[in-house]
Input
Amino acid sequence: MEWDIVEKELSKLKVTSNGENELVTVKGDSNKFECIGVGTDAAVFRFLYLPHYAFKVFSNDKLGKLEQENEVYLKLGHSEYFPVYYGRGFNFLVIRFEEGITLYDCLLKGIHIPKQVIEDVDNAINYVLGRGLNPRDIHLKNVLLHEGKAKLLDVSEYMKPGNDKRWEYLKEGYKEYYHLFDGRALPLWIIETVRKWYNQAKPESLNVQDFIKDVIVLFRMGSK
Output
């Protein structure tokens, strides 16, 4: 594989986990990689000389998550809703790098999110279910606006049971209230406050309409 040549260089980077809900720490020295994202289990790098690949490098204590994600990608197969999956190394997965902007950054920058994105995510969810997997953890940072359409970036929880209802809340908020601030940049503190509210609540006990109304009140307060 073409990307095999980077494995030695990638070993110079050390990814360390910091707890269940904390982002990983990246240490090491390589001027050939650009870190393009961090999560609680792994960090994602782009190799400057093979920029069409993205390398998701896991902390050594999270290799079980790597195994699960590898299995998910194999079950998903090829789909227009997900990046192409190329394979794995000891502590990393290799997928195609996709140009675009996350829905999270769209809200921060006031970039319009077309209805097509919502339809694409719904179609992707149906596709995942048809593959015998459980689509979970679909949120603003895991959906990429790519050439006017949606790409889902993180499949790490598709083996877990249950419904975290993240997408249901986002879709309802988009349908009922997105027109109120479409094209307006939202302050970071509003987005982060909403995220913390959701994480502190139990999804099964939340009422979608009440939750969204609280969000709108917060937005109006921040707009004054």
Notes: The helical segments are 7-10, 63-76, 103-109, 115-130, 166-177, 188-200, 208-223. The mean pLDDT is 89. The longest strand covers residues 33-38.
